[in-house]
């Protein structure tokens, strides 16, 4: 694989991850042959219209995913990004489309959950704050909000057609701006099919510090990257981090 040159002290790194980084931990991806969207129509289970139509089905889908996380642990790719954060501190930002919480479980702290979190729930009607929740609703009626008593609870996930958190987008933008020409961008394990995440590479490119893609196959937005390594995340990400930190390969 193409190794990046070691980082200088004035450089910063933005990493975008997708489902592929968790695949080797045993979490299903979305668009691969065994992916979640082969068995479920995303309009039915991951859109506000789908939730209005059949909230119990949506809860079944997310409950199964919550249950599927039992015993799942981060892999070498998640751990390598922790090592990078520990070396760079505030010069590092991790943006994940994943809702599985594995980056946090590995030890990453500067993480933006662009599409929400699987183990957080909120009310679909009132403004009660989102709360940690590991409960399963595999059958029966969908749960109601304990604060207002009338609204339905829903997973704290950004569905198709919903806007992403403004603060999160502003944070990413500020991190890029401060990096200027010294921003390096890496995308890992993502098909580049979902926006606005898939457009981050275009924004990073304008800064000129270099854009890398590590993925099992060519992503839809592959042409926007300066470098593409076709490989599994668990082997390629640790090597990329080793190159960036200027360390000898083990
Ligand atoms: C919005 C729920 C404003 C979370 C998810 C054109 C331009 C801009 C926007 C749009 C546009 N056309 C349509 C839109 C809107 C839409 C969109 O992007 N649609 C696409 C399909 C065209 N976007 C939105 O609606 C977003 N909001 O734009 O707001 C707005 C609002 C209204 C109207 C207009 C504008 C909201 C998007 C949120 C989507 N939420 N799901 C959940 O349940 O988990 S999307 C879903 O896809 C997941 O969240 C996931 O994170 C995301 C991306 O998927 P990936 O992570 O990339 O996973 P995927 O399976 O696709 O790929 C995995 C890759 O890994 C593969 O390539 C595989 O080869 C690779 N891989 C596998 N194993 C490994 C590996 N690589 C390395 N190592 C391995 N071991
Ligand atoms: Zn409520």
Task: Characterise this structure.
This protein has helices at residues 20-23, 36-39, 42-45, 48-53, 55-68, 76-88, 102-106, 166-179, 200-205, 233-244; strands spanning 12-17, 92-96, 111-113, 116-123, 131-132, 153-157, 183-188, 211-215, 227-230. It is of the alpha/beta class and 250 residues long. The protein folds into 2 domains: 12-27 and 73-115 and 164-244, 3-Layer(aba) Sandwich (Rossmann fold); 36-68 and 117-157, 2-Layer Sandwich (SIR2/SIRT2 'Small Domain'), CATH 3.30.1600. The strands form 2 sheets. It has a 6-stranded parallel beta sheet with strand order 3-2-1-7-8-9, with helices on both faces. Strands 5-4-6 form a 3-stranded antiparallel beta sheet, covered by helices on one side. The longest helix has 14 residues, at 55-68. The model has no long low-confidence stretch (mean pLDDT 95). The structure holds ligand BV8 and zinc ion (ZN). Zinc ion (ZN) binds next to loops. Zinc ion (ZN) is lined by residues 123, 125-126, 128, 145, 147-148, 151.
């Amino acid at each position: 694989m193409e190794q990046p040159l070691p980082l200088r002290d004035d450089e910063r790194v933005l990493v975008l991850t997708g489902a592929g980084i968790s695949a080797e931990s045993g979490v299903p991806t979305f668009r691969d042959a065994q992916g979640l969207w082969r068995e479920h129509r995303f309009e039915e289970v991951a859109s506000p219209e789908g939730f209005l139509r059949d909230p119990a089905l949506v809860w079944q889908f997310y409950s199964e995913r919550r249950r599927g996380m039992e015993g799942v642990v981060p892999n070498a790719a998640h751990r390598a990004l922790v090592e990078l954060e520990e070396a760079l501190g505030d010069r590092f930002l991790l943006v994940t489309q994943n809702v599985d919480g594995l980056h946090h479980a590995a030890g990453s702290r500067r993480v933006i959950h662009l599409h929400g979190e699987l183990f957080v729930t909120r009310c679909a009607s009132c403004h009660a704050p989102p709360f940690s929740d590991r409960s399963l609703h595999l059958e029966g009626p969908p749960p109601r909000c304990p604060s207002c008593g009338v609204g339905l609870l829903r997973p704290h996930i950004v569905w198709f057609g919903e806007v992403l958190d403004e603060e999160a987008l502003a944070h990413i933008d500020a991190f890029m701006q401060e990096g200027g020409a010294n921003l390096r961008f890496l995308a890992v394990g993502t098909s580049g099919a979902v926006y606005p995440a898939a457009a981050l590479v275009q924004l990073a490119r304008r800064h000129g510090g270099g854009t890398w893609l590590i993925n099992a196959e060519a992503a839809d937005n592959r042409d926007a990257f300066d470098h593409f390594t076709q490989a599994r995340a668990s082997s390629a990400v640790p090597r990329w981090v080793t190159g960036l930190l200027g360390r000898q390969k083990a």
